[in-house]
Structures are given as C-alpha cells and as structure tokens.
Amino acid sequence: MKKTIAILAGGGPAPGINTVVASAAKVFLKEGYRVIGIHNGYKGLLSARPELVEFDFTLCDKIVNLGGSVLQMSRHKPKDNEFSTDFFVRNQVRLLVTIGGDDTASTANRISKFLAENNISIQNIHVPKTIDNDLPLPEGTPTFGYQSAKEEGVKIAATIYEDARTSGNWFVVSAMGREAGHLAFGIGAACHYPMIIIPEMFNKTRISFDKIIRMIISSMLKRKILGIPYGAAIISEGVFHFLTDTEIEATGINFTYDDHGHPELGNVSKAHIFNMLLQRKLKELGISIKSRPVELGYELRCVRPTAFDLLYCSLLGIGVKKLFEMGLTGCMVTSDPKGDIFPLYLKDVEDENGKVRPRLVDIHCQKSQLVFHNNLHFLKEEDYDQARNLVSDPENFDFYKILDWY
C-alpha cells in the first residue's frame, strides 16, 4: 500500500479551501503518494466508517478554482476518549493536513501526541484559514479567504450604498467577524461608508448598544449638515462578543437559547437588531430617517477565490510539502508577501491559557487613522451650533466624546 497523505477541513468555509487541497494533493501525487480527503472534519476522521475522497490530478484540476470545499466541513472538537489509531494504521498515513482555525490546529496537535504515545509517528501541518483575518500571522500576511470575502463584500456594500443614494435612505450593514473588525473595516473603507464601527475602536470605553446607535446618528446628523440625505453604516458583529447576555436580551428580540442558556445569535440578523434600536432612538428624537438592515455573512464564505487567493492558497498548499520534507510537525504553514514559506508554531502565538491570541485591527496605524479621521462623517465640537437645529444635545452625539478619543 502506498504511503498516504490525509487532508481534512474544520470550522466554516472560506474561499480558497479547494485551492489549498488541490495544490497540496498535486505535489504529493506527483511523488507517488496516495492522497485522501476526509469528509466532516474530525467527526469523520474518528468515525467507524470515514467517508473518503480519493484525489487524482483530474479531480484536483476540477476543484482548484472553485469556491466552497470539496470536503464537507465540521466544527466537531473531539474529546480525548474519541481518539483512535485505526484510521492512521489502516491507511499508512504519514501526514495529516488540517485546514481551519486555531481549534482545528490544536486538535491536530492533540491527535499527533496521542499517536506518538501509541508508537505511531506521523507529521501534522496546519493551513490557517478564516475570512475574519484574525489569526496571528506575520505582519502584512492575511489569512487566506479574507481578500476574496472582502472583494465580494465590497461588491454588495457598494450596491447598497448606491441604493442609499438613489432612494435617499440609510442602510445599516452588519459584517461577519468574531472579536476583530478587519472585514467590516476593509469593506467600509473601500466603499467610503460614512460610519464604520468595529470593536477595536472602543479602546478607551466599554462597548454598548447605546454608544453604537449614537455613533450612527452622529453620522446621520453630520450628513444632514453637509446636505447629504442618505448614507450607510457598517458594524462588525464582533461587538457582540463584548456585550452581556442581559444587554442583548434587553433589545426585545425573541431569541432561541443554547444548552447553556445563552442567546443563539447565529439565528438572528445582527443588522436587524442594530436597525431596530436605531429606529427606536430616531423616533425618540423626532428625527425622520428611513433605514434598512443588511447582513453580510454567509454570502461571503463560499465565493470563487480572487486571483490573490488563488495564488496565495496555491503557495500554501505547495508549502505543506516543503515543511513536510523538512521533517516539521505541529506547525502552521505561512507565506510572506514575497511568497517565501515559513512554519509558525502554535506555542509561539498562544496566551498563558493555551488560547491563540486574535489579531486585531491596529487602530493606531496610519491606515486606520486616515480612514477614521478623514473618510468618516460624524459630529464634533465645531458642528454643535448647526446640529442644534436637529437635536437639542449635539454633544451627546459627538463621535470623539462617545469613544472618549478627545
């Protein structure tokens, strides 16, 4: 039996998964290896009858440019008592290639240690993936899928902004993102949205729904002063990570709840929540502005990769073989802006609790400062006199005061 390379994908989709899979498979097939893919991530790997995909050059050529994933994905995180040597022994696996976030990588390391304890030696190399761009890769290196998701998001967001201009309305857009606001910032900045709200902006004050809504209204008031009756605000869903269950439930939305009693935010539109709270506040202030909610989430995850990600993911897939031949294991493959391949070890990016530190938007860098202070529209002290024709307390909608940036 040929020596085998096994590939699985965990977590959620990101543009470029198929490119990574096909590129890695091709370079190993060329050297005479058997390359198999495993459906349903770790759940499939550790099942009694894993559902497999046998890769050949023809299949790789069919999928290399496609969005989505030829391998069905799963967020299953196995317990130690689920581990087994059967699959690896039966298939003579020499390398386990995992594609996913930090949880997927950490589980691969656990499995590798388990196999070593049972006298089975395999290498495991992880390919970091997320459209959120929040994994701690080297400076200037995006996570694969981010650029393609941002490109699709910009297409949708630009159309929304044109609708706002054409109809004279406002739109409230929520963009995917966990703790970090890279996607919302990238889309909003590219489309010249007059208000961008991301968690990192609240570096001097606590995030609250009240502050978020006042920031949107600040932009609406400034645009009225400028004679612009329309606009759009984009908010990273990552702000929800810093709000309590009590605050979220106080919105009045009817939530379903998980087994731990927490509101299941995945079952509701974040944009709808923001827009509902905004309309309540506008009515309270006696301001007549129509706004509509738009969610940017699942629409971005399975698009066809852009040229950037097609090349980037190809390098990552080929880079897996380079690190394998160097005898490395328990590491992530990275490609710097020049295209050079380097390993990145989880132990070098974990905090004291073993959790991978998220890469946040650097709000102090020149790019962020240029966008926040020049591209956005919001009230500040010199606008107070004109703003009093619209609201009695313009200082309450002063952008810098809301964020404590003065």
* CATH fold name of the largest domain: Rossmann fold
Number of strands: 11
Which range best describes the helical content: under 10%, 10-25%, 25-40%, 40-55%, 55-70% or over 70%? 25-40%
Q: Helical segment tally? A: 14
Secondary-structure element order, as H and E? Answer: EHEHEHHEHEHEHEHEHHEHEEHHH
> What's the architecture of the largest domain in CATH terms?
3-Layer(aba) Sandwich
Beta-strand fraction estimate: 5-15%
CATH C-level class of the largest domain: Alpha Beta
What is the approximate shape? elongated
Structural class based on helices, strands and sheet pairing: alpha/beta
Mean pLDDT, rounded to whole units? 94
Which spans have pLDDT < 50 for at least 5 consecutive residues?
A: none
How do the strands of the widest beta sheet line up side by side? 3-2-1-4-5-10-11
Amino- and carboxy-terminal Cα gap: 68 Å
The Rg value, from CA coordinates, equals: 24 Å
Protein architecture, described:
- This protein is an alpha/beta fold and 406 residues long.
- It folds into two domains: 4-145 and 305-348, Rossmann fold, CATH 3.40.50.450; 153-301 and 376-403, Rossmann fold (3-Layer(aba) Sandwich), CATH 3.40.50.460.
- 38% of the residues lie in helices and 15% in strands.
- It has helices spanning 17-29, 41-45, 57-63, 86-90, 102-117, 146-167, 182-190, 209-225, 245-249, 270-285, 307-325, 366-375, 384-387, 399-403; strands at 4-9, 34-38, 52-54, 93-100, 123-128, 170-175, 195-197, 231-236, 291-296, 331-335, 341-345.
- The strands form two sheets. The chain has a seven-stranded mixed sheet, sandwiched between helices. A four-stranded parallel sheet has the order 7-8-6-9, with helices on both faces.
- It starts with a strand and ends with a helix.
- The model has no long low-confidence stretch (mean pLDDT 94).
